[in-house]
Amino acid sequence: MLNEVGIDRVYLACGATDLRKSIDGLAVLVKEGFELDPFSSCLFVFCNRKVSVKYNPPCGLRQ
Length: 63
Fold this sequence. Notes:
By secondary structure, this protein is of the alpha+beta class. The protein has one helix at about 25-35, and strands at about 10-15, 45, 50-55.
């Protein structure tokens, strides 16, 4: 479960994203495609037929 206190912004990637990418592949999309820091305290949401959420909590654990 996410704690909304630690999230600064939520970014929704519109359009279809290949959700077979690993967490590292999605982080590359955030960095190169959106020119944002994938390790910031923001929530990145990717959609296709289902929803995938990429979030790096400040403690460094990935969910």
